[in-house]
Amino acid sequence: MNSLTEKQKMVAGLDYFPSDKTLVADRFSARTQLDRLNSIPQDQVKQRANLIKTLFGSTGKRLYIESTFKCDYGYNIHVGENFYANFGCVILDCAPVTIGHDCMLAPNVGIYTAAHPLEPTLRNSGLEFAKPITLGDNCWVGGNAVINPGVTLGNNVVVGAGAVVTKSFGDNVVIAGNPAVAIKHIE
After folding, report:
1. Annotation says 116 is catalytic
2. Residue 1 falls within a domain, yes or no?
């Protein structure tokens, strides 16, 4: 039986070593593209969008990301139509990040699929694991909010500024706090 590559393990949510030469090369390639993206003037909308479309795994036709934007790989990010990310967005896409149509990320939003073992010896070994994150259609994530590994948010979810989202929520809710809790249902 063939063993899985570190990249296959990473995307599958298994323990993997991020120091693997393929993963290091993939991150370097993404950073090179991000350096280019973040240096393109904001008014060159089409050029910026075209670069994002080559970096991401899939996109809608219309999207815009303000500089500076950071991610690990890019190819694990999938965004729908009319995606917008404000200044300082960070997406650690070791596992797939799927974002629906008509979603907005406010400044300094962090979407983190990467995680580390709690046990110190394993953590010190360099092992990591990742869990996918999914945001439904029409989500709005407030400034400085953090979406943690394994979270799924339904359609029409609003995440309050500064929220730390540690668990999944269904459709039509406003969530806020640390850890985030549902504070309102949207009719």
Report:
1. yes
2. no
Angle (CA) 64-102-62 rounded to 5° is: 40
Question: Is 100 part of a structural domain of the chain?
Answer: yes
Please pick, among 78, 101, 116, 185, the residue that the annotation labels catalytic.
Answer: 116
CATH number for position 60: 2.160.10.10
Domain membership flag for residue 13 = yes
List the chain pLDDT tens, one digit each, 187 residues.
469 999 999 999 999 999 999 999 999 999 999 999 999 998 999 999 999 999 999 999 999 999 999 999 999 999 999 999 999 999 999 999 999 999 999 999 999 999 999 999 999 999 999 999 999 999 999 999 999 999 999 999 999 999 999 999 999 999 999 999 999 999 8
Q: Is residue 85 part of a domain?
A: yes
Residues of the domain holding 128 = 6-185
C-alpha distance from residue 174 to each of 53, 84, 100, 159 (Å): 30, 19, 17, 6
Q: Count of CB atoms within 10 A of residue 118's CB?
A: 7
